[in-house]
Design goal:
Blueprint: H1 2-28, H2 30-34, E1 42-51, E2 66-73, E3 77-82, E4 90-98, E5 101-111, E6 117-130, E7 139-149, E8 155-167
Antiparallel strand pairs: 1-2, 1-8, 2-3, 3-4, 4-5, 5-6, 6-7, 7-8
Length: 172
Amino acid sequence: MQIRQCTQLPGMTLAVMLALMVIHGLVFGPEAQAQGSRGLEGAWLFEATLVDCDTGESLPIPVNPFPVLHTYLPGGTMLDSAAEATRSAAHGIWERTGNRTFRERFRFFSFDATGAHVSTVEITVERSLIRGENAETDEVIGVGTAKFFDPAGVLVGEGCNKDSGRRFVFED
């Protein structure tokens, strides 16, 4: 029986070593390392402005500009929430399009005062990352378009927006 245990020991050791290598790859692989590279991944504090699509000028409407939070997740998904009581959180996707340039698309639902769903909004934004001295001074800017759909999914309007944001970081 002792001989059998000794012959199983190298096989068990090999299995443990392979498992550790896989775990190391998952935890310290390229996507995990990218988090420290000051790319787009992470949480950002934005100020968004609805603008005239032809002139780029801010629309004269209440609460414009308004604060927005974006979270860019590894693998190309994102979350967005704005300081508006009449809309849901947004879910979407993002991708790198070049050196420090990105594209994102996300959707959220709009509601009337009674809480009824009145529209679905899909926003597409072209982004540029401006690297600062450190993560705290990095900035991202974007210009986008919005499509407004009624509850049946019929396109009922379009609009434009621009925004800028800073990374949400721990302060020293």
